[in-house]
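Hi Y.,

Following your request, here is the sequence exactly as I used it, all 310 residues.
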Amino acid sequence: MLPTDRHLLAIEGMLPPQIAPLLDLAESYVLLNRTGTAPRERLRGRTLINLFFEDSTRTRTSFELAGKRLGADVITMSVATSSVNKGETLLDTAATLNAMQCDLLVVRHAASGAPALLARKVEAAVINAGDGTHEHPTQALLDALTIRRRRATLEGLTVAICGDVLHSRVARSNIHLLTAMGSRVRVVGPPTLIPAEIERLGVSVHHDMRTGLAGVDVVMMLRLQQERMARGLVPSAREYFRFYGLDATKLAWAAPGALVMHPGPMNRGVEISSDVADHPTQSVIREQVEMGVAVRMAVLDVLSRHGANG
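Below is the corresponding structure, written out as tokens. Let me know if you'd prefer a different format.
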């Protein structure tokens, strides 16, 4: 079901026959989670290590919960206080992890390609939980599941991904997945925050929210990643919100009932207004969090069947 049958490092290269069954399995976990009947024996005796070199709340907690609901022994390594922060190299860390004989390794790292490097050096199945500005595959899968549950299909939908596309691994993974599944994707943002030649990925580029949101079925807002930015890429937060923040006026340009999404954490009043973020029918932001646990359970389930240690 996955490109290598061992790891999940990227959405790029995955095809609909690989993506759809994974979403179907995640769908079943949504129902099992809601009824409290998740199969806790599925990963019994397996060890899942969360190795997060970058701060995360949603993704780390979501993987912890997913592993525990499937019965795995879950260990989260605090990199800030570990030997990694004292100068240990990534390859030294890989050797240590191999000695621990873990089965599943979830990695978030500031350097693009770090999970792929670890995947070549460890015996565990590796899941990329976000690497640099490269990809965040499980976020794209949970976003796709959220949309599919509301719209029944991804094919033929028009999705606008808005904001800081330049620094967003979420945007890249979503572009690969949505275009593979037959959606039309627009990226919307100021020229300074749109990657050069992104049209090569099969998207259309808009620098004006009115044209970018016109008639779209889904509006996916992105966090303004100021920690990754050089100075001068954006004006003040107030000016950014005026032109590119999603409020009720701009949302009205989309198709009636358009879904509103955000991967979190949200900067309210910068990327999105509170009335839109909390809209009772159009916002699916909280639903994305629930889908995240189900998707990560599905990924852990599938990779545990193909991992080197089992």
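The first strand starts at residue 47 and ends at 52.

Thanks again,
Q.
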